Amino acid sequence: MDKGAYDFTAIEKKWQDYWLRNKIFRTEDNGNKPKFYVLDMFPYPSGAGLHVGHPEGYTASDIIARYKRMKGFNVLHPIGWDAFGLPAEQYAIKTGTHPAETTQKNIDNMRRQIRGLGFSYDWNREVNTTDIHYFKWTQWIFLKLFNSWFDETQQKARPIEELPVPAGLSKEEREQYIHDRRLAYESFAPVNWCPELGTVLANEEVVGGVSERGGFPVIRKPMRQWMLRITTYCERLLAGLDQVDWPESIKKLQRDWIGKSIGAEVDFQVDGFDEVIRVFTTRPDTLFGATYMVMAPEHPLVDVITPEPYKVDIETYRKQAAQKSDLDRTDLAKDKTGQFTGAYAINPVNAQKIPIWISDYVLISYGTGAIMAVPAHDDRDWEFATKFELPIIQVVQPPVPVEGCFTGEGTAINSGPFTGLPTVEFKVKITEWLEGKGLGTKAINYKLRDWLFSRQRYWGEPFPILHTEDGRIIALDEKELPLTLPEVDDYKPTGNGEPPLAKAADWLSVTLPDGARARRETNTMPQWAGSCWYYLRYIDPANPNAAVDPEKEKYWMPVDLYIGGAEHAVLHLLYSRFWHMLLYDLGYVSTPEPFTKLINQGMILGLSYKDKRGVLVPNDLVEERDGKPYHKETGEPLDEFPAKMSKSLKNVVNPDEVISRYGADSMRLYEMFMGPLEATKPWNMRGVEGVHRFLGKAWRAMIDEQTGHLVPQVQDTPADEETLRLLHQTIKKVGEDIETFGFNTAISQMMIFVNHLSRLEVRPRQVVETFVLVLSPFAPHIAEELWHRLGRSCTLAYETWPAYDPELVREKQIELAVQVLGKIKDRITVAADASDETIQQVALASEKVQAAIGNKAIKKVIVIKPRLVNIVL
RNA sequence: GGCCGAGUGGCGGAAUGGCAGACGCUGGGGACUUAAAAUCCCCUGCCCGCAAGGGUGUGUGGGUUCGAAUCCCACCUCGGCUACCA
What is the distance in angstroms measured between the alpha-carbon CA of A399 and the sugar C1' of B32? Predict the structure, then answer.
């Protein structure tokens, strides 16, 4: 190989070593520079390593970080590992390898891959959620949750010692009262149990009735669990969204997930009983149309009100419902099911007797677990009433007549004294009426449930909690943290919900100072725990005395820019906002919201193939002939299309392979050149070749491939006007595009510049050096090497970002199209500062334009300065 | 079913009220070479035409405007998320 060739492998290794060895990107916590905190979403160190989706967000954030450094900011740009989680544990179950060992191996591999891309992380701040010095503070935050309550009046969390407890309670009642208000509490409610995974899951982890990870069936099962009272923060979580600069789509996802709805709670007397069934409705205006009621099968009143002859059928139905997986319950293709209880309720507005049913389309966990059914104006009730032949009474007149069920707003009919009222007005009136009679009240409900926070796993943070033999729950003291994981022989869950930690006999039992015997909590925390607050730990990663030093926290927070995938919209991003609000309330952090600006990178798709019938063909069965894809075995011509990367389609692109063939700079550049950051885009290896050629061209414009020295064209001479203008246009465009995340167009501008530069006989040194600085955030390795060969002795990472001169950017001459009635007839060139009048004169002087006008009268001439002239006849 | 996003050459995309297709890929032609690779130069939306030139064109149909890929209305297609929350 010639010593001057663009040897990206050697160059990239050289500079990666240089940055690391000299700690070039080590960040200090002080300084008089303004701070900028740019954060990547926490990666899980998977055994499969990086896929091409990771470097997309990371490259974008790295370009921002490098650019901001050059713009004079003190930049915090850290990385670490969200390293607890199920895969390492399942591997342990299969092979007996300790999850810590697997995790370490995976981290080492991913760190190697990430370093190979040349990201400017401060490696002194690397964190790892499985490190005891890290999860000590995860446990500490849990204790804060456990030892806090939410003050509704002040709308904030406060220490549990400040909770006003009613006088005259017994010791046990007092304990219970406090426990019922802790932000972390034990519950025995039915939870999402996944037999396949041997653990329970949070609502957010169950998608379409199956587990989000693995797609296994999930059933409802009552179990003892730890919950976090995230619901107390519903209003704060909603309000905070107005304060942050996030994509509207993500804000909407969070708002919908919190799911605030305003309506009324109404009491229906059960005929012949003292009991009332309370329902929640957002449409109290349809009360006159309530023709039956439905309770969730689990509703406690079912036992009370069901008369003897109906008990057998009701019990059978309840058993069936309990055994159904969530998938069975939510599958819309299935008919509605239900069972009449034999009991009746009295509709409070018209004293009508209406039958009470149970059905699993009513959920025990939302509202009051019972509904009034208004089949004329609710799709679900309509479907149910039609199937079981229950009466349907219309009480809302639609603005325009509709067939079947009408769920919109209109005018009340068949509604006694309220007939004729518009829906909105009716809602207010009827709620007042109900309140006056003591039959109901205005009510707000949220879809968001408390966060199920325990898992029956080994590889997670242990809870700092003890259960005494006499049934008390005692939290460890902060001084006793961290509580580490015990060694076990067997990582397998027991299958009945008893976690693996229950097998660690020595670890399990504890004798308290007062002599009482206690057992440790055997559940562990979910993976989300560690990622809820990692952005705070980066600020002060080695602090043994606090999760984060308050002074440093004040300096660095909030995160100025957070880049990651949209799949975390309602999971991580909601959970970590909740924890942050708690820490804010207790005075440990200084900002109400953690992440000021959020950007979602789009998904990268792989190239895939299907035959004429639409059958998918894995990539290893595809061969190319004359640039067209064919089936290797059948010889059939195939269609190319983009599809989600998957093992089965064999269309996964491995970053290691791309780097070894084209280099990290080409990889980075291609990921950014593909299209807008937020868009979904298909990967195409030929595109990598394109940006790779661009880098080679930039290299050859400066370096002689034979000698490795500067080419003779690079000279210490002033630039010509055109070159200078293009350079300044490039500085301007690239800088502005970085600020607005338009990396693809920034790169095309640099391509235009290099195409020009390589054609020049004289390439002024000043111009060349400035361009290298502009290129450096995108392709830092080649930029450092060129900078070095241009005679500079240290890194360019802290050079000042070049300023452009607006005078030099401006073109001297401008070309305008001349249209007659919107059709282009000619082009004219005028001085850039020509007046509209002058331009008009020149345009009208054109023979072609005159010919197009003919003898018609000119009505109007529109001059749009740098673009065109339109003559209206 | 609901919500969100997107439809522009052979492909990725650019242009967010002002010359549609920047930049890159692919394809074609040429230069260099014994030859090839690499590199460099030229061409490359579609249709008609030998050409000069003309016509047409941003999913479909309508509208607003001197002017629409861009704004408005209706529809079609694709992708993502979500799913009985009363």
Answer: 79
